Recover the amino acids of this structure.
């Protein structure tokens, strides 16, 4: 789609996107950026979302940088 023509969000941009939706083509999912400012995970952006498979919904929370995921802003 159109999202793929853009550049993926940088770490700084991900920080600014905290609480906002993004699209991750590698996982084919939409999710919300979570960005902690305190504690062990401070300064690391996470992708929070839900997998829907076989009638079940499973929550996930992935470290974007550690997994090398590319996230794109949604228009």
């Amino acid at each position: 789609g159109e999202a793929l023509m853009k550049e993926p969000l940088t770490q700084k941009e991900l920080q600014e996107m905290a609480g906002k939706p993004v699209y991750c083509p590698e996982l084919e999912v939409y999710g919300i950026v979570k960005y902690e400012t305190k504690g062990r995970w401070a300064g690391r952006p996470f992708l929070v979302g839900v997998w829907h498979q076989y009638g079940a919904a499973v929550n996930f929370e992935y470290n974007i940088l550690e997994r090398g995921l590319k996230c794109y802003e949604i228009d």
